[in-house]
Amino acid sequence: MRKSGLALGLMAGALLAGAVWAGEVVHKVGKLTWHPAGYVGKVLAMKGYVLQAGDGYVLFSDEPGGAISAHDLPVQGTGFDQMKPGTLYLLHGTFVKGGLKASNGNPYHLDLTAPPEPLH
Which residues are registered as beta bridge partners of 96? Predict the structure, then answer.
């Protein structure tokens, strides 16, 4: 019993610290934008950086800087407007096709289902 309580306490602490559940797959932006078909409509986790803010979204990338391309992913939803360039974030959201016209021409976007979590 004592070990179970400790394990639950550690899991709760990890969640509060922005950790990922054991077994949760954390995707890269490039994997999703180069091969999007299998992810549409799914809630998923991903990590990356804000490259640029748009009107009602941010462009998200695997890299903290560089040129904007069609493979950077627009992100909108809860807390997107608080995200800062150069900070690594863990995001949870629904991968969506359509419904957002981004400046980079990517027809997909991530609609956040939880606030972004900065990773330090």
Answer: 109
Tell me the longest C-alpha to C-alpha distance in the chain. Answer: 54
Q: Locate 100 and state its tokens.
A: 């957002």
Q: For residue 73, what are the β-bridge partners?
A: 60
Tokens of 52: 């640029």
Residue spans of alpha helices (H) in the chain: 2-16, 29-34
> Dihedral of the CA atoms 100, 102, 104, 105 (nearest 10)?
40
pLDDT of 70-93, one tens digit each?
A: 999 999 999 999 999 999 999 999
Domains of the chain: 23-119 (2.40.50.140)
Does pTM surpass 0.90? no
